[in-house]
Amino acid sequence: MQATKKTSTAQWIALGAMGLGVFMGLLDVTVVNVALPTMVKAFNTTFTNLQWVLNAYTLVYAVSLLIMSKLGDMFGRKKVFLTSMVIFVMASAVNGLSSSLLMLDISRGVQAIGGSGMMTLSMALVASNFDGRARGTALGILGSIIGLSSASGPLIGGYLVEHFGWESIFYVNVPFGILAVILTVIYVKETPSYGKNQRIDFIGMALSTVSLFAIVYGLIVKEGHPHWDWTDGRVAGWLIGGLVLLIIFIVAESKIKEPMVNLKMFKSAHFVGIVIVAFTLGAGIYSYNTFLTALMQNYIGYSAIQTGVRQLTISVWSLILGPVTGILSARYSKKWMISLSMFLGGIGFLLLANAIGPNVSFVDLWPGMVLMGITNGMVNPLLNTAGLEGIAPQEMGMASGLLNVFRQIGITVGVVGLGLVQDTRYESYLNGHLGSINMPAKTLHALKEALISAGPFSGHGIAFSERLSRALFAQDFQRIVVHAYDNGTSALSLGAAGIAIVGGLAAALLLRNREKSTEISTAEEDK
Does some domain include residue 73? Predict the structure, then answer.
């Protein structure tokens, strides 16, 4: 009896170690946003030049997920998870020590390799370290950590930057990372090296890396240049090239005896539904946090910490609901829990769209934010559990990797797509209303160009600058800029609602209950 209790305690400590790794890896995707204003002054540069501090991590993180998943499946997930954690901790230290932007960009890319390995292998490691009902609870807790880390970036980043400087957002990973390494070595059980006698699919790894790089980079280019057409070669070239390489990757994988990705997983409607939900969760819930943070800081006027505290309205639900979902999923259908939760998120976005206005405050926003948080807190843990049902043990790492790839690409697509919706409505309103202000035509043209060039995020700073605020037309000008921003933000909120509803429909139509999904997977394996 005592031995059983000891084993159980070791399992939960192992979960804590893996959860800590995941939390650090995902937190560093969002925490840098808060530090950018401070880093602009520290490096004496512009926001545009600093953009690659974000993009380097996003890009390398996305393209590394599948490779790290496959290496974990082949050679042991604990080994690769530990290696990833060491890489992440060492790169974090270099980030804080960086004396130039180039050094910081390169070390951020290296850090992303470690972050992707920790993220993608944690789910499969948890599944192999727990059995039965405890597995569902553990995956639920891991899902809550994923949701919490993504939503708490503004609060943690704001506190660290305000009290300890921008370097602290990287240095804080070092002691916690060392602790996680020690706990992982002692308590996490290794998985078999399923592919130790297999050949590494270098062709598949190269094609997957280059195709994902091209697609994600093309989206990043479009995000940075919203006025470039999709047909512009500088955008379309990357996207079309990435899609062509993705098709070549699929054809090559279907012909290789020991492929990097077992494409038979996509013959299951259940698994296809899971990756669609993962994509819509990223494109809707996670990408919206970017715009919500800008609304609260740039337009309402909250500080980084004030914004982070208020966004606890979203993130706290991951703590509350993560462990609960494991219990609920043992009694109720994951399919309908996921579907209804996504629909709930859609309602939340509709409430947010309706709340946006010139005098909007947190009092108006919190009902929609609560529904966003409940959706995130419910869907993420359930997605982890349902996504691994019916998956062969040797392919759990890759299944986890695919879920994370679709979620990450969803975030990128959401930021770009919803951002374009906001830009379009913002510019349309400016073009239709600025002409009504009594000011010289030359001044009007210059201000309009400045607002459109700056975009919705920075338009408020221009309109309410000290110089413009003294102009005779200041109040009318500022009112139009605020209304333009409100129109764009309401439109993107409606877009996010549509994405969440698509995720809910995909879950309702494609997901299967546990028994059915297992039967389908078994039948496909027999074929």
Answer: yes
